[in-house]
Amino acid sequence: MTTPSNLRGATRKAGSVVPWISNRQLSFCGGGADSFLPLRFAPTFPGATRLTDGFKPTLPAAPQTFDCESALAACARGDRDALHRIYQFESRRLLGVALRIVRERALAEDVLHDAFMNIWTKAASFNAQRGSALGWIHTIVRNQALSVVRNNGREVSADEEAIEALEAEQVAHAAPMTELFEINADIGRLDECLQALDAPKRNSILAAYLDGCSHSEIAAKLNAPLGSVKAWIKRGLLSLRECMA
Amino acid sequence: MNSNVTSADDIQHLAGEYVLGTLSAASRAGVEARMANDAALRTAVEQWQEKLAPLHALVEPVEPSPQLWSRIESSVTAQAAATKASALSTRTVQPDVTPISTWWNNLRLWRGLAASGLAATVLMGFVVVTKLAQPPAPGYMVVLVGPQDKSPGWVVQAGTNSQQARLIPLGKMEVPVDKSLQFWTKGDDWKGPVSLGLVKPGQSLEVPLDKLPPLQPNQLFEITLEPYNGSPLNRPTGPILFIGRAVKII
Predict the structure, then answer these.
(1) Is some CB atom of chain A closer than 8 A to the CB atom of B81?
(2) Is there a single domain that holds both residue A72 and residue A141?
(3) ipTM of the complex
(4) Which of A76, B12, B82, B215 lies in disulfide reach of A123, CB 3.0 to 4.6 Å?
């Protein structure tokens, strides 16, 4: 590794330089903020508390008696009770999804509000040929949450302290990458395909999908060069596609 | 992400990154606009959505605050009242038949158009009052509004039999140096939008219409954000910035 020239005077120890950190931004995506978030899987980043210790799933498999597709069709006809039924059935999971991405309770509720308005106004455009009704609803919520974090530019500038902390962390944990996520629910074939990936690819993909992290946020979170993260995600996606084909 | 990727692998990669959520706001908007016309990309996105959806099972549910549903309900009520007032917004959708179905099905857009109709009416009143002394009023007027906030950004005026339309800015806007604004129109029965050329922010533009069929009521006009010097294809590839429909002026 070469010594970076623009680390703004951050203290460096031999062998611990992170040349790519200088121009990059650190983010709230992941990191310490995880500790207050409800997780069904734990951050196992070195030193992190394992929140899943002793965890037992509180939700049984979703009662699939709810006919989301019919409810959407009713929404399209202007039936507001149908929208309420969707809300009653899925809002807790949807809020969980939004909260993981936007990380602020009030913001997550705003996301859910806007998403339900979208569900209401776009219900007529749902097409069962193109995917499940529940998947469609989740996509709307995720898109809404992602547009909030992408448009707000959630990133903060790296300060000296953060750079040092990251370097120190790198020294302490230069070993093989640990798992950031633990899969504690039955997600079927996707689980096998994720397990077939190496840890960096798996971590990158899960951090992106579940926490709404951008490439640079993942790079900060994994303490890895941006180029590597991009390559991991690209190859990880390719492997997943082949595995799930 | 550039908008010219064509290979199947590139499309899969772009769709995968889009669904993962790693793209910037601008790239996301680009993909969404492109999906409207690109069936392969749309299919790839839908496949990735299905593949990754099981991951939601990993997220711990969170109980919403009791007020949240009331908020949604009152917004829906307000919105439903607005919809009732607008015949446009109840226009039926055409899920699969048209490649432009994504934005075509966007009710928000139609509401925007309804709002633009209202804005056009208001503006027409203004024009009629201020231009009484002038020769006959133009035959058509379009107010182009932002699809999200519905704020008017441009006005199009054209005479009924005129070979020209005039695009007039209502305000200033910033365009990134590597991007251009492009002006498009589409009649109800046309196959796709037709480019009316590049637009400079804050500047009026005279647009020749002699190569096009006569203007029709309800004809769609829009301004999209495109790569520098315009879309590489003969259709919009970037996000819609302003949109509106022609209103006939008596």
Answers:
(1) no
(2) yes
(3) 0.71
(4) A76
